[in-house]
Design a protein that fits this description.
Layout lengths: L5 H11 L8 H8 L1 H21 L2 H22 L3 H11 L4 H9 L3
Helix pairs in contact: 1-4, 3-4
Length: 108
């Protein structure tokens, strides 16, 4: 099994911020601005949802990879380290999903 993880991908994305847009798709997305990055993420999320219903397992895997990549580009565009998101997820696992959601909706 591969040891490649989201932090590895985030590091590659960060590295590509130093590239030129003509050589790096990541850089071209970031240069286009947060609105473009957010739109692309949304498109990929819809494609994953549709593949989940009507696609093959290979389609779902490919679209899920696209979603994860574009999510990390979105985080990079906002200057939010993936470690911060992973820390948030870790905090949420300390309670049930129902408790965590109730805490968010009640302002607590």
């Amino acid at each position: 099994m591969s040891s490649f993880n989201l932090q590895d991908l985030a590091a590659i994305i960060l590295e590509r911020t130093g590239s030129s847009a003509d050589k790096s798709y990541t850089k071209s997305l970031l240069d286009a601005g947060k609105h473009r990055v957010a739109k692309k993420f949304g498109e990929e999320a819809v494609e994953l949802a549709l593949a989940t219903v009507d696609g093959s397992d290979a389609d779902v895997k490919a679209e899920a990879a696209d979603v994860l990549y574009h999510m990390l580009v979105l985080l990079q565009a906002r200057g939010i380290p993936v470690a911060d998101v992973l820390n948030e997820l870790e905090k949420r696992t300390q309670q049930s999903g129902h408790q965590e959601k109730a805490a968010r909706t009640s302002g607590g």
